[in-house]
Amino acid sequence: MSLFYSMEQNAIEDELEDACIVLRPSDVSELLDLHPNTVYRLLQSGKLPACKVGGSWRIYRKDLIDFIKKHPV
């Protein structure tokens, strides 16, 4: 097994691990230093991809990273 293959495998595993991390709106609010209402407006408008689970919003970490990349400050 080559070093490159090992590094590539680690990158894939890291990406899969990131894809499984789920955040709550309060987590996003804290991470981005936004008011919670701002986060809920982004969720309700569909600008920040998320899903509702049992009436509560859940945001995948990967979707949050993509959102930040698309909306630089």
Could you explain the architecture of this structure?
By secondary structure, this protein is of the alpha+beta class. Helix content is 63%, strand content 14%. The chain has a 3-stranded antiparallel sheet with strand order 1-3-2. Strand 2 and strand 3 form a beta hairpin. The longest helix has 18 residues. It is globular and about 35 Å long. The N terminus is likely disordered. InterPro entries: DNA-bd_dom_put_sf, HTH_17, SinI_DNA-bd.
Quick synopsis:
The protein has 73 residues and is an alpha+beta fold. Helix content is 63%, strand content 14%.
Number of separate helices: 4
Instruction: Estimate the strand proportion.
Output: 5-15%
Ranges where pLDDT stays below 50 over 5 or more residues in a row are 1-5
- Major sheet: 3 strands, antiparallel
User: What fraction, in percent, of the residue positions are helical?
Assistant: 55-70%
Rounded Rg: 15 Å
Number of strands: 3
Structural class: alpha+beta
Q: Any idea what the shape is?
A: globular
Distance between the termini: 42 Å
Instruction: Look at the structure and give the mean pLDDT.
Output: 83
| Helix-strand sequence | HEHHEEH
Main sheet: strand order: 1-3-2
Protein name: Helix-turn-helix domain-containing protein
Pfam family, one: HTH_17
InterPro entries: DNA-bd_dom_put_sf (IPR009061), HTH_17 (IPR041657), SinI_DNA-bd (IPR010093)
Domain Helix-turn-helix: 23-71
Which labels suit this protein?
alpha+beta, 4 helices, 3 strands, 63% helix, 14% strand, globular, disordered N terminus, SinI_DNA-bd
